[in-house]
């Protein structure tokens, strides 16, 4: 007798029984379930078969894609190799071109350097020639300048200047100019003439110095009279004088005092005098009898009360005896 196992509890039951004594209800449910499971298994099997077919198709597609990728890789690899080879060739050609250009440029630079060097040497030679020519021209200019200086400031020109100074009584200037001419033109005719004038000028200076010394020695006792001052005042201008008389008018200013003095008490010999108030110990008044010492100032003119012009000798008073 054939037996089967309960799919629920595993107990062995006869083949023809549809229930299990131990789990009858479960057997019935299990039986239904088994049928459903069988149907599900069949469905799953069909799906599995479909899935396997789809998987096979996917594998085929994937294999085809992989093959295509492989082919593309090979194509790209070949293309890359070709590009690399081409780049190498182009690079090599570029280097060759650069080398050729470098060699050519070096040759051109060498040639240009040679040309520039020759040009520099030529210009340098020309410059040396021009410098030498300029030196010669400068020498000529110096010679011409010396001749021009001789014409403008030579012995003849200097002698004319010395003569002019001699005629004007500029004795010291004559001596100085004659000395300069003597330094440069010693022994010339101009020098001899200039030295003669310088000698005479020195004599004039000596005479003037002697006269001044004599004048200083005699002081104000020069003997110059009022009449001399009134008639030829310019001949005695700057000379020392001494007069005594009566004060007829006093005009006092700010620090400076003016007086009119009747020389020897004579109202026909009126003298104008001016002095600084600091030279006297006390004021000088009208009708005072004084002695004045001073320097002749020529003549002084003023308006009288009648409207006329009066001109009298003037003295710059330096000392007064009261």
Task: Provide a short characterization of the protein structure.
By secondary structure, the chain is an alpha+beta fold.
Q: What's the number of helices?
A: 5
SSE order in H/E notation?
EEHHHHHEEEEE
Measured by DSSP, the beta-strand proportion falls in 15-25%
Domain module count: 3
Q: In one word, what is the shape?
A: elongated
Furnish the topology, listing elements before pairings.
Elements: E1 3-5, E2 12-14, H1 24-153, H2 155-167, H3 171-184, H4 189-218, H5 226-231, E3 240-252, E4 256-263, E5 270-276, E6 289-303, E7 309-321
Parallel strand pairs: 5-7
Antiparallel strand pairs: 1-2, 3-4, 3-6, 4-5, 6-7
Helix pairs in contact: 1-2, 2-3, 2-4, 3-4
List keywords for this structure.
60% helix; 322 residues; OB fold (Dihydrolipoamide Acetyltransferase, E2P); 3 domains; 5 helices
């Amino acid at each position: 007798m054939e037996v089967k196992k309960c799919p629920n509890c595993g107990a062995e039951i006869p083949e023809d029984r549809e229930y299990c004594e131990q789990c009858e209800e479960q057997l019935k449910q299990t039986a239904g379930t088994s049928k459903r499971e069988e149907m599900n298994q069949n469905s799953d099997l069909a799906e599995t078969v479909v899935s396997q077919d789809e998987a096979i198709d996917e594998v085929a597609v994937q294999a085809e894609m992989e093959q295509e990728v492989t082919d593309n890789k090979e194509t790209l690899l070949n293309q890359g190799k070709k590009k690399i080879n081409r780049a190498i060739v182009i690079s090599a050609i570029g280097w060759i071109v650069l080398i050729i250009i470098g060699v050519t440029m070096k040759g051109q630079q060498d040639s240009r350097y040679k040309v520039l060097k020759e040009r520099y040497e030529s210009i340098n030679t020309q410059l040396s020639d021009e410098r030498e020519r300029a030196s010669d021209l400068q020498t000529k200019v110096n010679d011409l300048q010396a001749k021009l200086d001789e014409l403008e400031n030579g012995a003849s020109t200097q002698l004319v200047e010395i003569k002019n100074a001699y005629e004007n009584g500029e004795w010291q200037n004559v001596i100085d100019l004659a000395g300069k001419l003597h330094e440069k033109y010693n022994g010339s005719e101009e020098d001899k003439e200039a030295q003669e004038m310088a000698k005479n000028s020195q004599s004039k200076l000596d005479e003037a110095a002697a006269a001044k010394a004599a004048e200083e020695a005699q002081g104000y006792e020069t003997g110059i009279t009022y009449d001399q001052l009134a008639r030829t005042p310019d001949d005695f201008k700057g000379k020392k004088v001494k007069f005594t008389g009566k004060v007829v008018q006093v005009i006092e200013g700010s620090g400076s005092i003016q007086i009119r003095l009747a020389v020897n008490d004579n109202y026909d010999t009126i003298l104008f005098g001016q002095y600084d108030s600091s030279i006297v110990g006390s004021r000088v008044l009208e009708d005072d009898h004084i002695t004045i010492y001073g320097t002749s100032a020529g003549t002084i003119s003023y308006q009288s009360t009648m409207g006329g012009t009066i001109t009298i000798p003037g003295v710059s008073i330096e000392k007064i005896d009261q």
